[in-house]
Amino acid sequence: MVLIRSPHHGDQVEVGHEVTVHSMARDEGKVVRVELWVEEAIRQAEAAGIAGKALTPFVLARVVELTAGRSQRANVALLVNNARVAARIARALT
Length: 94
Known about the structure:
Blueprint: E1 2-6, E2 20-23, H1 32-47, H2 55-66, H3 70-93
Antiparallel strand pairs: 1-2
């Protein structure tokens, strides 16, 4: 489910203004699992001494491994949705 929080329906948007899109995922096992996988990946990164620029790619890759690819599919779905929202905004501005 996706909800555009800001701007509100019918509001004017000027170039440079922020648009807030909230994406919510739901499944039978609750989304809390993602937080646990991220925490585990961060623990593993710390144990391996991974930090700085290398931290985010490591955590993302580990979460994909820990979720057997499900997190990657969810991230792709979020990117596709963001593109749809951007297209709606572009149409509204033209």
